[in-house]
Amino acid sequence: MRYLEITVPEGKRRAVLDVLEDEGIDYVVSDETSGRGYTAVVRFPLPTRAVEPVLDRLRRAGIGDEASVVVINAETVISEEFSTLRDQYSRGGKKGSRTSRQVLRTKADELTPPFSIYAVMLLISAVVATAGLLSDSPAVVIGAMVIAPLLGPALAANVGIVTGDDRLKRTGFAYQAIGVTAVVVASIGLAVLARMAGLEPAGIDIVAATELEERVAPNLFSLAVALGAGIAGILSLTRGFSEAIVGVMIAAALIPPSAAVGITVAWGMYGAAIGAAALVVVNLLSINLAALGTLWVAGYRPQGLFEVSPTRRPTYVYATIFGVALLALAAPLAGVTLVDFQTTELESATEEEVQRVLADPAYDHLEVEDVAVELDGNYPIQSVDRVVVTVSSNEPGPEPGLADRLYEEIRPHGDGSLVVEVQYVVSEERGDGTASDAETQQASVRNAGGS
């Protein structure tokens, strides 16, 4: 429920009261004596759904920008007229709480912090995210998402588009661009310092860290987070859900990939940096496209018959730009997704073939330890490099002919350049049954079959 207070300009008092009486609204009128060109102050409660259409009618009746409108939350209204009005706007008994576009603009503006605070919070988030990725710590990365104030700019830009508020639109897009750029630059600086200090988790291959690898080789499923965040962000703004949780979703789509760009640039892995940068841009486009589409479907447009057409055109233009760019940039993600599917299928087929070969009585002394499909590391779109089969044995040295046999069985499931490598783990035990002491060492002998 909302409680409205409107200062009525001179000559518009009767028009305002006629609208309120026609709508069946219970109101109170006070004379305005400040001498500022107003004749009265009208106060009345409204169901949330009724705010937008009633304000539209008042504007069509001649209450323009010179009128002052205050909308506040109301806890309880006890009135027969209000109950009737609420039923009238409940749409078949579903008493929704759709926020009026006037309130929507205000909320979107309030969610966008002052630039100085925005910049400081983003820099802190960038530092935390970079540290979390370098240390492969999911908890630290989540902490960076909580800090980042990205919800307001993402929503403000699209609210500005569909409601014709150019200032809100410019602010939203500028904050998004500056924010992502700031995170990338800050991450480069911190990652360079970490590299100079010799902090290299996983050795030379920095992307071996799981938290980082997920961002430099993204697939199409990465779009789900961004699209969901955009839709949820608008619903939180229009339906009164928790903005904090949705803000974490939007940050999850933007902060870690942006930090990944900085880390990979600092390490000179430009292919991986391209993959992470593509994910950042795709997520930005997805969030804005989802938010814009959700707002338009929900019916948020400027009031008046003559204002819909001018706003529909820029909305369609922005939606087209977002959509076309998203489709173009999603192509690499589709390639990564295809590689993921091929890798999964190859690994499954290899496990079956290895089990079938080792079922031969001649290999009773061998046990399968692991089957892995290794990629070539050429980011962002990798390809299968080799299949590594690890077996354990109590006899030192490779098993003659095993690698060739495995290669012949696995080759039909891959391409012509597939390499099959067999690694042997030799174990030795000493001690009695009550106090065993075992030593296991990786055999240095490898046997491979290839094209």
What is the compact description of this entry?
With 451 residues, this protein is an alpha+beta fold. The protein has 14 helices and 8 strands. It has helices at 13-23, 48-60, 80-88, 101-110, 115-134, 138-147, 151-163, 166-196, 210-216, 222-239, 243-266, 270-297, 305-358, 402-410, and strands at 2-9, 28-31, 38-46, 68-73, 366-375, 384-393, 420-431, 436-449.
Q: How is the topology of this model organized?
A:
Layout: E1 2-9, H1 13-23, E2 28-31, E3 38-46, H2 48-60, E4 68-73, H3 80-88, H4 101-110, H5 115-134, H6 138-147, H7 151-163, H8 166-196, H9 210-216, H10 222-239, H11 243-266, H12 270-297, H13 305-358, E5 366-375, E6 384-393, H14 402-410, E7 420-431, E8 436-449
Parallel strand pairs: 6-7
Antiparallel strand pairs: 1-3, 1-4, 2-3, 5-6, 7-8
Helix pairs in contact: 4-7, 5-6, 5-8, 5-11, 6-11, 7-8, 7-12, 8-11, 10-11, 10-12, 11-12, 12-13, 13-14
Mean model confidence by pLDDT: 80
The topology string of helices and strands comes to: EHEEHEHHHHHHHHHHHEEHEE
Question: What structural class is derived from the secondary structure elements?
Answer: alpha+beta
Main β sheet profile: 4 strands, antiparallel
- Regions with pLDDT < 50 over 5+ consecutive residues? 92-96, 434-451
Using only C-alpha atoms, the radius of gyration works out to 31 Å
Strand order of the largest sheet: 2-3-1-4
C-alpha end-to-end distance: 73 Å
What is the percentage of strand-forming residues? 15-25%
Task: State the share of residues found in helices, binned by percent.
Answer: 55-70%
Number of helices: 14
Tally of domains: 3
Number of strands: 8
Tertiary shape: elongated
